[in-house]
Amino acid sequence: MIFRTILVPFDGSKASRKALDKAIQIASSDPAIRLDVINVLQFPTLVVGEAMIAAPASMQKEYYDASEELLQEAKALLDPLPNPTKTILEDGQPAETILSYAEQNGVDLIVIGSRGLGNIRSFVLGSVSHNVVQHAKVPVLVVK
Questions:
Q1: pTM of the entire structure?
Q2: Which of 24, 68, 114, 135 keeps 20 to 30 A from 13, CA to CA?
Q3: What span, in angstroms and rounded, lies between the C-alpha atoms of 34 and 85?
Q4: Tens of pLDDT along 22-44?
């Protein structure tokens, strides 16, 4: 199968770095492959009873700035590629946002790390990677 657009969720974790390296390796085989790197920003919220409390604006700015730095790091790794590349910052639930982006942008392959930086999520395969594998309509390569 020939892939034309590869999506790599990138959160700066060791596994996401390995996934990006693998995607770069795959993309290097054909300069027509487009490589999209997405960072999904999920602002922390506190649920108390029926109320949901959002993070203060100052904390949200810190999260946004950290995500921008991660994408700059990814761009630096993508620069040597002759391939078309794109970095995307989205906010929302990570798995849902990744799947939605993949569907809306004609992604042929998702290359994802087995575990991200999430605290509770890291106890299993990774709830994000597991959810993406279970619900993606395209092939998913999970990199350990």
A1: 0.87
A2: 135
A3: 6
A4: 999 999 999 999 999 999 998 77
Quick one: CA dihedral 143, 32, 131, 98, positive or negative? positive
SS3 49: coil
Q: Which two tokens stand for residue 124?
A: 């299993």
The radius of gyration of the chain from alpha carbons, rounded to an integer in Å, stands at 15
Nearest to 78 by CA among 25, 128, 121, 126: 25
DSSP letter string, 75-144: HHHHTT-SS-EEEEEEES-HHHHHHHHHHHTT-SEEEEES--S-TTGGGSS-HHHHHHHHH-SS-EEEE-
CB of 78 within 8 A of CB of 85?
yes
CA–CA dist 12, 19 (Å, integer): 10
d(CA 20, CA 26): 10
pLDDT tens digits for range 46-102: 677 777 777 777 778 898 999 999 999 999 999 999 999 999 999 999 999 999 999
